[in-house]
Amino acid sequence: MARKTKEDAEKTRQDLIEAARTVFHQHGVSRSTLEKIAQTAGVTRGAVYWHFKDKAALFFAMREDVFAPMIARTDAVLFSEHYDNPLDAIEASLKMFFCVLEESKVVRQVFEILTARCEYVDEFASVQAEAARPAREFLSKIERVYQLAADSGLLRTGLHPIACAQDTWAFTSGVLHLFLAQQMDNGLAQQIPQMISTHMGLRRQ
C-alpha cells in the first residue's frame, strides 16, 4: 500500500508539471493560476500545495523536468573524450541541442514559455536570478571548453576563450529565439547545423 501511495503521489506530481506546462504555454505564466493548473491536472488545489510551495516552485519543476535530461545529453557530448579537438565538442553539443529542440514538442513548449510567455513581476520578481541559472551554467561550461582549446593551441590566434564563450552564448541565444519565432516554417531548422559549423569555423586555428 505504501508503495502504491508513493507511486500515486509521483504520478500526481508529474501530472501537475505537465498541466502547468500546458497552462503556462496557453495563457502565459503571470495569467496562469494554480486553480487552473489543478483543474487541468484533474486534482484539487490542495494537491498542488502538497507538492509545490507556490507557482514559482511549480514553474521551476516544469523547467527542470525538461532541462535535466536535455542538459545531460548535451553535456555528454560537450565533455566527451571522443573529440580530440574541444572545438569539435562545442560544435557537436550545439547541434545536439537544436536537434533535441526540433525533435521534441515538449522541449519547444518549455523554451517558448521561458522566452515569450513569462514576465518576472509580482510573485516572480524575486526569482529572476534562478531563472537565469541555466544560461549562466551554459556560459561557464563553454568557457572551460574554449580554454581547453586555447591551451591545446587549437583556438585561433588572437581570440580569448572568455570572449569566444560569450560570443557563442549570444549566437546560440539568437538562433534559439529565431527558431522559436519562425515556428520552423521557413527552413531555418535545416540551416542551423551549417550556421553552427560556420560560427565554429571562425574560431579554429
**Portion in strands:** under 5%
**Low-confidence stretches at least 5 residues in length (pLDDT < 50)?**
none
> Per the principal axes of the C-alpha atoms, what is the gross shape?
elongated
* Quantity of strands, as a count: 0
User: In terms of structural class, how would the helical and strand content be classed?
Assistant: mainly alpha
Can you give the mean pLDDT? 92
Amino- and carboxy-terminal Cα gap: 63 Å
Rg? 20 Å
Number of helices: 10
Q: H/E series, N to C?
A: HHHHHHHHHH
DSSP helix fraction:
over 70%
**Which sheet architecture does the biggest sheet show?**
none
What does this structure look like?
The chain has 205 residues and is mainly α. The chain contains 10 helices and no strands. Helix 1 (2-27) crosses helix 6 (105-116) and helix 5 (86-103) packs antiparallel against helix 8 (133-151). The longest helix has 26 residues, at 2-27. The model has no long low-confidence stretch (mean pLDDT 92).
